[in-house]
Backbone:
């Protein structure tokens, strides 16, 4: 849910500013607002220092990780006392600049060596000395065909080398340089290969020294992080200071902020210690309050997924509890392989043990998605692209051959999931519209639900003589005739009559024509309603069909995994009678590893992206989700 906020407005005596902000920061619950852009030199300098220290600390961590060992030469406390962190940052930047400059020089040397290699190792200065006494040498490179067309009768030409189809040659002359049509002269570097190699070795030594110096600085990571956090706290303090505007010739300071409603009493007690005038109030209409989400352990794991799009607005519903179960199920249906799910689950559980507490929620989310994938794999009887007979009794979503051809239960489930999530979204929109704009504003999304329900009932009618739109009598799960058993108990068929569908569809249409765009006049609404009806029906069709990807991705991944298995076992005589004693076992293992790794990677990526699309496009569209909420960030001291 979205935590309810209170707006705090106060006036403070100017001499209490420093003490007030310091103790307010210790309280750590007020989100400070300011309409004045922070452009002071102090804020800019502190922001620059924070970014600088963070970048260097991150770079040093990567360096330390690459070395494969932790550097513990200086503890956080001693480093902070004994080292001038600002000097360390400057020294790191100097070494970094030197390392990068040398890298550019080495790249240029390598390019020069590539240019010189076809000509051999010679001293370019000797060419200059010959030119001083009137003997000139020009260097050329030309394709063999062009070289053969050169009239060499009056030229002194020497071929130096042939590289592929290219001829490298020189012309030696005393007076005017010969003109070779269509052939460009090669300009060589003014150093020999030997000289370039010597320079390269010197530069590499200097680069290694710079890198070694940077690696030693990894011992100062705790001090740099402490320096960064101190500067960050100072930055926030300066921003808070700037957010306080002067009144009454600067004697009073005006201050505004947001706090959770539950913390109002605590903040009020805190303010009693200061000479302030303060008021607490609910957010006004249209006021942009910060958003703080509060969810249970399971739902909170999906908050990063929702934040990939946007936080809900303060006056919107928290969509996280409604996204979490659907996203979990959708991911499992898209991957739908018990073997792949087992890998994800085991890897996530191991990672939860190894990683820092900061990343454990992400690993827990991975474990949940892995369990969902294993469950879907059992229901669809898929284990690394292979069917397991042990799963058959549970495989209620596995495809099978019926009397009229192949039957795909997962396809039907995808359509059911589509209407469930779409109806849920429409219901949420009904609630929000009625809550915020009144009863009549919620009638348009209600009409959408009625129209869709009517279309479903009418569309499910089977045969010209059928009276039921939806007949549950034939409902079965994995061979169990549940619908027929219930009908036998009650002695009548179970279903929804076709007429109900007509009533719902036409009644919903009439409601949509009358109650769309309630801010417009009543006689204009039927005209705008026709356009709304057209957009809704077309959008509903495309949105529902979009959910077929849940079935299609699971089916495609299973078929590709099965194809990998078939190709691999062909190397040992086939899947029915494999010869594991043959040399083909090596190839079989390689094909299985590579093929399933590729399938796992592609399917896993698609299984994350497509449920995101269904959430952010179809579901959010049904909800009428706008988003754009700004996160609640209380003024507090950072301590890591």
Residues:
């Amino acid at each position: 849910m979205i935590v309810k906020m209170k707006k705090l407005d106060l006036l403070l005596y100017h001499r209490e500013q420093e003490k007030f902000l310091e103790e307010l920061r210790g309280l750590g619950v007020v989100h400070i607002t300011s309409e004045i852009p922070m452009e002071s030199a102090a804020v800019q300098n502190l922001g620059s220092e924070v970014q600088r220290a963070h970048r260097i600390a991150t770079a040093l961590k990567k360096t330390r990780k690459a070395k494969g060992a932790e550097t513990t030469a200086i503890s956080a406390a001693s480093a902070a006392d004994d080292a001038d962190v600002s000097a360390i940052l400057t020294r790191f930047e100097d070494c970094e600049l030197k390392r990068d400059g040398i890298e550019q020089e080495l790249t240029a040397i390598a390019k020069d060596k590539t240019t010189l290699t076809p000509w051999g190792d010679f001293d370019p200065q000797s060419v200059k000395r010959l030119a001083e006494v009137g003997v000139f040498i020009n260097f050329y490179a030309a394709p063999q065909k062009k070289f053969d067309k050169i009239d060499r009768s009056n030229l002194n030409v020497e071929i130096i080398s042939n590289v592929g189809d290219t001829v490298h040659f020189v012309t030696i002359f005393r007076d005017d340089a010969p003109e070779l049509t269509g052939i460009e002269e090669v300009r060589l570097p003014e150093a020999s290969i030997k000289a370039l190699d010597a320079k390269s070795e010197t530069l590499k030594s200097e680069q290694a020294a710079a890198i070694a110096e940077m690696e030693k600085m990894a011992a100062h990571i705790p001090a740099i992080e402490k320096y960064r956090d101190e500067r960050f706290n100072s930055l926030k303090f300066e921003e808070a200071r700037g957010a306080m505007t002067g009144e009454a010739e600067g004697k009073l300071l005006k201050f505004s902020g947001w706090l959770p409603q539950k913390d109002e009493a605590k903040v009020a007690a805190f303010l009693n210690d200061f000479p302030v005038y303060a008021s607490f109030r609910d957010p006004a209409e249209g006021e942009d309050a910060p958003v703080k989400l509060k969810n249970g352990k399971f739902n909170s794991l999906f908050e990063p997924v929702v934040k990939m799009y946007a936080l809900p607005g303060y006056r919107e519903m928290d969509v996280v509890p409604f996204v979490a179960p659907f996203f979990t199920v959708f991911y499992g249906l898209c991957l739908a392989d018990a073997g792949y799910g087992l890998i994800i689950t085991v890897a996530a559980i191991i990672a939860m043990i190894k990683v820092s507490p900061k990343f454990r929620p992400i690993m827990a989310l991975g474990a949940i998605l892995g369990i969902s994938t294993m469950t879907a794999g059992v229901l669809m009887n898929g284990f690394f692209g292979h069917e397991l007979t042990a799963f058959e009794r549970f495989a209620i979503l596995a495809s099978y051959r019926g009397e009229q051809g192949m039957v795909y239960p997962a396809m039907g489930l995808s359509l059911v999931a589509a209407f469930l999530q779409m109806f849920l979204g429409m219901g949420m929109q009904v609630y929000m519209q009625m809550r915020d704009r009144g009863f009549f504003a919620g009638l348009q999304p209600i009409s959408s639900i009625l129209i869709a329900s009517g279309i479903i009932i009418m569309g499910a009618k089977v045969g010209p003589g059928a009276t039921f739109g939806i007949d549950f009598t034939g409902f079965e799960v994995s061979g169990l005739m549940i619908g027929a058993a219930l009908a036998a108990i009650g002695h009548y068929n179970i279903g929804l009559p076709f007429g109900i569908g007509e009533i719902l569809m036409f009644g919903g249409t009439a409601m949509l024509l009358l109650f769309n765009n309630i801010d417009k006049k009543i006689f204009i609404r039927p005209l705008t309603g026709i356009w709304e009806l057209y957009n809704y029906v077309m959008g509903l069709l495309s949105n529902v069909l979009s959910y077929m990807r849940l079935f299609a991705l699971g089916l495609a991944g299973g078929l590709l995994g099965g194809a990998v298995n078939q190709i691999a076992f062909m190397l040992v005589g086939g899947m029915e009678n494999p010869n594991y004693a043959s040399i083909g076992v090596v190839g079989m293992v390689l094909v299985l590893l590579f093929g399933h790794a590729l399938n796992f990677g592609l399917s896993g990526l698609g299984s994350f992206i497509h449920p995101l699309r269904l959430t952010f496009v179809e579901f959010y569209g049904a909800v009428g989700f706008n988003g754009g909420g700004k996160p609640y960030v209380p003024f507090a001291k950072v301590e890591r």
